[in-house]
């Protein structure tokens, strides 16, 4: 199952901060006009995840938005759109409404129709769907739009994510890498040919790719490391072959459906601990919002970053630079720590 990155409901004060952030996301503030550009964002199934925030940032500047949604949640997502459940979250800074022009069913662990096993074909959650593999979606996009400008990979899955690496099975390890890393490679293989020269592709990663994050298991740390390495190689290959830029964002901890799955029953969740740790130890001791990732993604996708490729951009309030936990009991009374600035 492809786990989509989601943020939690916010308290009033946090909503105010988020509202200010959205005001900063206006097309004027972002400084680029993307009218006529087409974006495909894989991994959108509601209005609270990273993918939605990126879509909204692009829509602010006039881009046409299309998305890929995991088949088992496709009907729920489309129904919610049609019933107006996301209308409030579709409002743009100038009063316009973001429109998702088309929702494609997408299961990114399958490249071609022949890859789909019988148990998936016969699964009632896939009933009536004939074209949901990466190659089929690419062909459908080409038929509908000719070429696109932006490709966003906002999905991941580690079926054994709660297991330590030493306890992860080969099947679980390979599944994590297939869904979370190779899927990006496959998307560029099939969608690179239908991307305009000067376009850009973007994925989302996590600092567990390069440092030890206890509790983030099942081969997911390996998958993120592969994703970042592939970003650099794909930047070279796709840059030369298609004239397309390839980057990734290493986002800080944010409560999401994917992250919330890294829990053990009866215990405080991994993501809750990670968020508290970040706010205590990061240089910028503040909340992280999906709009923060959206704004950074906009920059990397837009012409403002036309000379930027092969980059892992950290959007984590600076947590990645820290080599010591300032709230460690080992430091009690022995280290002067400045108080964070309050807003």
TrEMBL record:
Key words, A-Z: Fatty acid biosynthesis, Fatty acid metabolism, Lipid biosynthesis, Lipid metabolism, Oxidoreductase
Pfam families: adh_short_C2
Gene Ontology biological process terms in this record: fatty acid biosynthetic process
Molecular function in Gene Ontology: enoyl-[acyl-carrier-protein] reductase (NADH) activity
Functional pathway: Lipid metabolism
Keyword Cell membrane attributed: no
CDD domains (UniProt xref): ENR_SDR (cd05372)
PANTHER family: ENOYL-[ACYL-CARRIER-PROTEIN] REDUCTASE (PTHR43159), ENOYL-[ACYL-CARRIER-PROTEIN] REDUCTASE [NADH], CHLOROPLASTIC (PTHR43159:SF2)
Family label: Belongs to the short-chain dehydrogenases/reductases (SDR) family. FabI subfamily.
Name used for this protein in its record: Enoyl-ACP reductase
């Amino acid at each position: 199952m492809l786990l989509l990155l989601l943020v939690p409901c916010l308290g009033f004060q946090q909503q105010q901060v988020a509202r200010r952030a959205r005001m900063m996301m206006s097309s004027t503030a972002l400084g680029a006009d993307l009218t006529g550009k087409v974006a495909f964002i894989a991994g959108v199934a509601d209005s609270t995840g990273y993918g939605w925030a990126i879509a909204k940032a692009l829509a602010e500047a006039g881009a046409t938005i299309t998305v890929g949604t995991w088949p088992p949640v496709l009907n729920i997502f489309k129904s919610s759109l049609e019933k107006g459940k996301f209308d409030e979250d579709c409002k743009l800074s100038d009063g316009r409404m973001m429109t998702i022009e088309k929702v494609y069913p997408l299961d990114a662990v399958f490249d071609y129709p022949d890859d789909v096993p019988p148990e998936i074909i016969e699964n009632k959650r896939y009933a009536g769907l004939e074209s949901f593999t990466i190659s089929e979606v690419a062909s459908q996009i080409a038929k509908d739009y000719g070429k696109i400008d932006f490709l966003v990979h906002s999905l991941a899955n580690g079926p054994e994510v709660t297991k330590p690496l030493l306890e992860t099975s080969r099947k679980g390890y390979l599944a994590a890498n297939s869904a979370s890393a190779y899927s990006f490679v496959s998307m560029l293989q099939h969608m690179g040919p239908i991307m305009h020269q000067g376009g850009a592709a973007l994925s989302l990663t996590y600092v567990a790719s390069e440092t030890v994050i206890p509790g983030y298991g099942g081969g997911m740390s390996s998958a993120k490391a592969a994703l970042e390495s592939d970003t650099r190689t794909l930047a070279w290959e796709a840059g030369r072959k298609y004239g397309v830029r390839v980057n990734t964002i290493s986002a800080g901890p944010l409560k999401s459906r994917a992250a919330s799955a890294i829990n053990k029953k009866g215990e405080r969740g991994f993501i809750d601990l990670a968020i508290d740790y970040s706010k205590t130890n990061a240089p910028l001791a503040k909340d992280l919002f999906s709009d923060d990732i959206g704004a950074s993604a906009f920059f990397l996708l837009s012409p403002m970053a036309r000379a930027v490729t092969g980059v892992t951009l950290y959007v984590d309030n600076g947590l990645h630079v820290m080599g010591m936990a300032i709230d460690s009991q080992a430091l009690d009374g022995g280290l002067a720590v400045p108080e964070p600035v309050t807003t």
